[in-house]
Description:
Number of strands: 0
Largest sheet: none
Shape: globular
Amino acid sequence: MRDGFRTLASATACVAAIGASVAGCGAASISESSTCRQFLAASPQDQQTLVSQLAGKYQKPDYATPLGQPEVPYYCASHPDMTLKQFFEVATG
């Protein structure tokens, strides 16, 4: 019984360590200087947060709406080397 507990504890520790390392990998933040490729690799939550921030900064309120936010990843899929700053400078909305 003691060996079973040790095995369970070891497995739990491994899962926790893997979870922490994966969370650490995703912690790299994106910014307006990030490329569309980097933006698309970020979590949906990070994407949404950044789009909302940049929509306010560049006075493009349409991109902060639920209908406007998907426009950024849609455009980025075809322009992976463009930065988000470049996108918001030329975006209409």
